[in-house]
Amino acid sequence: MNSKDFTEPLGGVITWNINTACNYRCSYCTQRHLKDRTRRGGEIEAFLRAFAQLPGIWEIKLSGGEPFLHPKLDELVAGIVSLGHYVSIVSNFSANISRLSSFLEATGDHLKVFSISLHREYVNTELALLEFTNKINWLQSHIPIRSSVNVTCVATRDNLPHLVSLHNWFMSHKITFKIQPEKQDREVIKYSPEEELLLKRLGGHNQLQEIAFNFKGRLCWAGSRYFTLDDRGDAWRCYPARRYRKEYLGNILKGSLQLFDTPRPCLYNYCNCTVPIERRMMFVKE
Ligand code: SF4
Ligand code: SF4
Question: Any residues with CB less than 8 A from the CB of 171 and at least 6 apart, and which?
C-alpha cells in the first residue's frame, strides 16, 4: 500500500457544518448562495448519540456558518469530549473572550486545532488587525499544550496585494498563517502565473504546497475515515461529493449513516479537502 495504513486503529475525522447562520456576509463566502442562512443548530442529543456509535476515536471539526452562533456550542463540545472524541473548530473569531473561555473550558485537553478565518472585509483597519492579533495571542496562551492555532485568509483579488505583509505580520507574532485559494462556481478562480507563484511561495492551499489538487481515479479513504456532515445530519464522502450531490452516506440523525468499508476511487477533478490530503488518505499514483 502506498497510502497511510488505516487498518488500525479505527477512527477518523468529520468536518461538520453545525449551522448556516453567520454574523458576517463576506462577499466571497462559498455559502452565500445557500437558501437559508439562518439555521442556528441546536439539536445536539441525537448527534451525540450517533457519535457514540462511531468506531474508534474521531476528531470532529466544527464549522458553520459561524459555530460560535450555535446556542448550545459548549454543551455540544462537552458531549463530544465525554465520548472520548476530539474537537477542532473553524471560526471568524468574532466571539468575545468570555465566549472563547467557556468554549475552552468545555473542550479541555480534547481541543485539537482552532482555525481562525481572517476576513479583511470586517477586520479592516490597522487597529482592528492589532486587536484581532492580540486576541489570538491570548488564545494561544490559554489552549492545551498539544493544541494548535492558525489563521487562514482567502486569496481574493482584493487580498492578494496584502498577503505577504499579512504573512510577515503573523509570523512576527508567532502565529501560523495559511492562504486558501478563492473558489467561484465550485472551482478555484483563474490566477495568473505570477499570482500562482506568490500563492506557492506562501505555502499553497493551507500550506499543502499546491493551489489545487486532482486525485481523480486514485483510491481514497474519504467516506470511510473521513466524511462531511451538515446541520441537518446529512453526510457525504467529502466536500466535492457534497457539491455534486454524489456518494451520499446517509443521515446521521435518521440512523442511516453507512460508511465505506474500504478505500474507493476518487470521482472528482478538484480536491479541496485539507483533512484527507494532510492525512494522506489517497493512494500515491504508481
Ligand atoms: S465568516 Fe465565513 S461563513 Fe460567515 S460570511 Fe464570511 S466566509 Fe461566510
Ligand atoms: S475529492 Fe479528495 S477527499 Fe474526495 S474522494 Fe477525491 S481525493 Fe478523496
Answer: 177
Could you tell me the residue range of the domain that residue 192 belongs to?
14-212
Percent of the chain with pLDDT over 70: 96
Measured from the alpha carbon of residue 21, the closest ligand is: 1
Q: Which three cell numbers stand for residue 88?
A: 477542532
Closest residue CA from atom 5 of ligand 2: 266
Instruction: Read off the pLDDT band of 1 (50, 70, 90).
Output: very low
In this structure, is residue 58 part of a structural domain? Answer: yes
Give me ligand 2 centre to Cα 64, in Å. 21
| Residue 141 covered by a domain | yes
Residue of 214, 238, 269, 284 to test ligand 2 pocket, by largest number of atoms within 8 Å of CB: 238
Give the residues across from 148 on adjacent strands: 113
Residue-level pLDDT at 5: 58
Per-residue confidence (pLDDT) for residue 2, from 0 to 100: 53
Tally of domains within the chain: 1
The CATH number for 158's domain is: 3.20.20.70
262 touches 220 (CB < 8 A): no
- Closest ligand to C-alpha of residue 92 is 1
The reply to whether 275 falls in a domain is no
